[in-house]
Fold:
Amino acid sequence: MKKYLIIALFGALSGILGGMGVGGGTLLIPLLTTFSGVEQKIAQSANLIAFIPSSLISLSLHKKNGTLKTDGIIKIIIPAIVFSVSFGFLIAGLKGRALGKIFGIFLCVLSIFQFFIGKKNEKKKNAQNQK
Amino acid sequence: MVLKKTNNRFIPYLIGSACGMINGAFGGGGGSVLVPSLEHFLSFDAKRSHATAIAVVLPVSIISAVTYIINGNVDFSVAIASALGASAGAPLGALLLKKITSDLLVTVFSLITFAMGLYLLLR
Structure:
């Protein structure tokens, strides 16, 4: 039971970050594998499933605020679905540990990008505030 | 959609493909790829990028989750515990967003992500 409480807590943390628009899922997976001993692929499926209800909540908020525009979005969704299914089957044959290492590389690359994008946005905002 | 702003009509398909590969292979991270791509290549503003990213990753995640279930890579107790936590956290995050500057958060978050990535790679 304690294990699942901690997992729910990790879920909450990733939900908070996700709600703030910072990639929550990329944090939930390593938290589950590192601190709760969850196997990599199990952690990945948990993140996929956890995303469904929390994103429905966020999406309804966006719809209410009028920030959601869906025209043309199908051009992004269709290739995304095709590749997510094929890559899902592709990694099913990999061992969890090997997949974890590839995921580690992905996190490092992603975080470097995010760091510089964050810095750029900060500068942009500061420039706007000075005007 | 502001597709007219770009000369290349294949851009949305390419962005979608990249998002799908990442999200399918790693069970997440598709949104983290989508948001900056939509801002950079399709000139979406931040809020619209976030809303679009969620609207794209939601159907992708549902179908992707089915592939994981078919392959037997799911533990429903872990998934449900995570989902309950995340559902409670998401609206809290949206509330906090109004009080905390997200740029500082991005910097802190990227450093934590880098450390975790390095750990996963080297352990």
Summary: Chain A touches chain B through 100 residues (CB under 8 Å). Chain A has a mean pLDDT of 90.
